[in-house]
């Protein structure tokens, strides 16, 4: 039998609020690309840190992100 660990409630809330903020920024026509654009945001709820890891778009992907300049 598998035992599943219940997620930390604070981490779940932090993840949900960060995701909503990134989505709202993406949907705002005047705002630049959100920090999550072509990246992974990793939340460490215990240390209170967010790690940003950038990922280049795959050159053969048809999404169009390859030609979009990245915000730093």
From TrEMBL:
Protein's UniProt name: UBA/THIF-type NAD/FAD binding protein
Highest rank taxon of the organism: Bacteria
Lineage, top ranks: Bacteria, Bacillati, Actinomycetota, Actinomycetes, Pseudonocardiales
Organism of origin: Amycolatopsis vancoresmycina DSM 44592
């Amino acid at each position: 039998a598998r035992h599943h660990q219940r997620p930390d409630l604070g981490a779940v809330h932090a993840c949900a609020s960060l995701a909503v903020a990134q989505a709202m920024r993406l949907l705002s026509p005047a705002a630049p690309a959100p920090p999550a654009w072509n990246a992974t945001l990793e939340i460490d709820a215990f240390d209170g840190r967010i790690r940003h890891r950038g990922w280049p778009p795959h050159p053969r992907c048809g999404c169009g992100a390859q030609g979009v300049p990245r915000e730093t």
